[in-house]
Amino acid sequence: MTNVKQHAYTTAMGDGAWWIFATISKSKVIVAMHDRGSSIPGTLLAKPGIRDYLTGKVWWQGRADGKLISAAAAGRTSTKLPYRGKGLPEMLQFTRMSTNGELAIFSRGGFFRYSEREQIESVGRLTNPITGTLIVWMLNLSGTTS
Q1: How many domains does the chain have?
Q2: Model confidence over 13-69: pLDDT tens digits?
Q3: How far apart are CA 101 and CA 135, in angstroms?
Q4: Which of 34, 35, 76, 137 could pair with 132 as two cysteines, CB 3.0-4.6 Å apart?
Q5: Is residue 30 part of a domain?
Q6: Among 69, 29, 77, which Cα is nearest to 49's?
Q7: Domain containing 44: what range?
Q8: Is residue 139 domain-resident?
């Protein structure tokens, strides 16, 4: 959530508020985080190289927001600094090690979802775009896979 304060909100957007919810049971923990900032796709394309600039022009209106969220989950950052962009990849890696773990990220006009139980990774477009980013993370407490 450090990223929210540093990248998601411009001065004009306000104080950079974000929300977190967590619940725990005998078998799993669910964490949901939400900010109403610039969005993952918005910040990834904020400092574009020429290829990203052209890509952004082609992908406008959220047509590839899911792919951009997937790129962030793989470690792509807007700053390209080696110490940035670690949070989502670490969450995804931990989800892959958790029996029945799931990670869903909704941002601007797209989504990324990984399910260990279903062994699927998917990206797509939201029918109704959202402001900011919503992350829902579910981990099984009974163990991890390899």
Answers
A1: 1
A2: 556 678 999 999 999 999 999 998 888 888 877 765 645 655 655 555 556 899 889
A3: 14
A4: 35
A5: no
A6: 77
A7: 38-129
A8: no
